[in-house]
Amino acid sequence: CNIGYTINGQPDGDRSFAASCAANGTFTGLKNCTRVTCGVPPPSGNAVASSDEQFYGDTETWMCKEGYSLDGTASGRADFTRQCLADGEFGPATPKECEDINHCLGNPCSANGVCNDLGAGKPAPGYNCTCLDGYEVKTLADGSETCEEDDCKGNPCGEGGVCTDLSKETGEANAHRCDCHEGYELAEPEPGNFTCVRKVCLMGLPASINNVLMSGHLPSVSVSTWHGGPHHTDSALGTPL
C-alpha cells in the first residue's frame, strides 16, 4: 500500500498482501488499501475541533476556546489547523496553538487606573479596572471598561448640596445631579454647569415689620437681625420690638 494506507485503515495495519494468479488468468486474494484514520480530533492546546473522523491527508481546523487566541491578544486570530499523518496522528499546529489572552495589554483602564486580568477562559472583556482616586469605572459601548474622571470630583454642587454621578446611568460624560440642602437652591452659573447656592432673601423688610433697622447685608442664608427703639412695635401684631 502507498504511504498513509493500510489494508484495514488502522495505523498499525498490514500494508501489503499476497495474491495468486489462477489458471483462468485472474488473481485471487486481492485486497484494497484504505486511508489510515486519525480518529476524531481531540482537544488541542485550549482549542476544540469538529467531531468528524479524519483520515490521512485531511486537514482539520481547531477553534480557540473563549479567552484564548494565537497571539495572546483579544483581536488576534483564533484558529489553527493540523493535518492527519500516515502514522494516524495529527501533525503540529499551523501556524501555532492558542495562548491565554492578556486582556491588560495596552492598559485599557488608561493611566487613571490599574487593569486586573481575570485569567484564562473568562468572558469578555476578561478584565476589570481599579481606578485611582477621583476616577471611576466607565463601561464603553463594546462592553470594555476604562477609568474616566469622576463627574463629582471636586464637588461641583458646592457645600450646599450632594453630587450624584450620572455617567454610569446615562453613558454621557460630565453628567451629574445636584441635590441641594435646605436653604439652598439649584443654579446654573455656566451653561450645563449646575451647583447649589444659598437662597437669596427678598429685598426690603417683611410688611409686618416697621420702624426697625437691619444689620448685615443681603443675600443671607436664613437669619437677619432687626433692631428697634424702645417704643417701636410690630404694626400688625402690636407687640414690642
UniProtKB/TrEMBL annotation:
Q: Which residues form the Sushi domain?
A: 36-100
Query: By its UniProt entry, which InterPro entries does this protein fall under?
Result: EGF (IPR000742), EGF-like_Ca-bd_dom (IPR001881), Sushi/SCR/CCP_sf (IPR035976), Sushi_SCR_CCP_dom (IPR000436)
Domain of life (superkingdom): Eukaryota
Q: Does the keyword Disulfide bond apply?
A: yes
Q: Does the keyword Ion transport apply?
A: no
Show the Pfam families listed in the entry.
Answer: Sushi
- Please state what the protein is called: EGF-like domain-containing protein
Q: Which organism is it from?
A: Pyrodinium bahamense
